[in-house]
Amino acid sequence: MINSTAIKFPFLIFRKRLNRKAAQTPTGNLLHADNTAGKPGQVFIVGAGPGDAELLTIKAWKCLQQADVVLFDWLVDKSVLAEIPRHVKTEFVGKRSGQHSMVQQDICTRMVALASSGLKVVRLKGGDPAVFARTTEETAALQQANIPFAIVPGITAASGASAYTGIPLTERNCAQSVTLATAHFKDPEKMPDWHSLAKATKTQTVVIYMGLSRLKEIAENLSSRGVAEDFPVAVVENACCSNQQVIAGNLADIADKVQGAKLTGPALLIFGEVVKSRQQVSLQLLQQVTHVTGF
């Protein structure tokens, strides 16, 4: 169900009000701080949400409007990038498996250099900065350089995918909690505790980020630890974006189904009985709200 408040108070109207008031707010003053005394700039580490630009928080949107430069990841959807004013400089600093990317240390160095020159920097990350986003490495670099920073939360991919696909993360008859895990486990010593994950599927929903290329491996490991072959699994590609896709199956056939669908990611893996409780969400209604707000 869509909150009628979203229709009564269109985001487009609200953001016009934000433009008029930004300079009067504490955030506006902070972003427009005077750097003539040689003081360093500021960094805002901002969650861009899972895709749809209208899922940005108001504070995140304000940061984008008042930035001097935005450093963005590859997970940030183009609809979000379109919200960045033309006069604001943007730099891609993404990391993606199998493609050209910046190493984390270079990203930290670049961010510190820009802020040290007195600029207002937005470090824009897909989803939420606190969930598998290497935020602590960047904040440590900023703290060491004595650069003030703030973190603006965003909707994480698991929550966004749940809402836009109708797959609940919890359902009292089969899942009382949720486990979020990452599939970035190149180091054998940092492999997931498969026994614990397999056990968790009995009473929890297990959501795995960045696991598309390792889906078959994950399914095999869970199966070998006793998870039934008919255990429900869903793969959500491009969650909350216009090209969102959902492939549903079970532990035994999900890898083949995904391969047949030629998914390329980014994708989220959802393991749990909750997949059977998928609700018939109307994305058309969300598009109507978009039309009302003028986007």
Description:
By secondary structure, this protein is an alpha/beta fold. The protein has 2 domains: 5-155, Tetrapyrrole methylase, N-terminal domain (Cobalt-precorrin-4 Transmethylase, domain 1, 3-Layer(aba) Sandwich), CATH 3.40.1010.10; 158-277, Methyltransferase, Cobalt-precorrin-4 Transmethylase, Domain 2 (2-Layer Sandwich), CATH 3.30.950. The chain is built from 12 helices and 10 strands. Helix 9 (194-200) links the parallel strand 6 (177-182) and strand 7. Residues 1-36 have low confidence and may be disordered.
What structural keywords apply?
single chain, 295 residues, alpha/beta, Cobalt-precorrin-4 Transmethylase, domain 1, five-stranded parallel sheet, five-stranded mixed sheet, 12 helices, 10 strands, globular
Provide a compact summary of the structure.
The protein has helices at residues 5-8, 11-21, 26-31, 58-66, 78-81, 104-116, 135-144, 157-165, 194-200, 215-224, 254-261, 283-293, and strands spanning 42-47, 69-72, 89-92, 120-125, 149-152, 177-182, 204-209, 232-237, 245-250, 267-271.
Q: How is the secondary structure organized here?
A:
Layout: H1 5-8, H2 11-21, H3 26-31, E1 42-47, H4 58-66, E2 69-72, H5 78-81, E3 89-92, H6 104-116, E4 120-125, H7 135-144, E5 149-152, H8 157-165, E6 177-182, H9 194-200, E7 204-209, H10 215-224, E8 232-237, E9 245-250, H11 254-261, E10 267-271, H12 283-293
Parallel strand pairs: 1-4, 1-5, 2-3, 2-4, 6-7
Antiparallel strand pairs: 7-10, 8-9, 8-10
Helix pairs in contact: 6-7
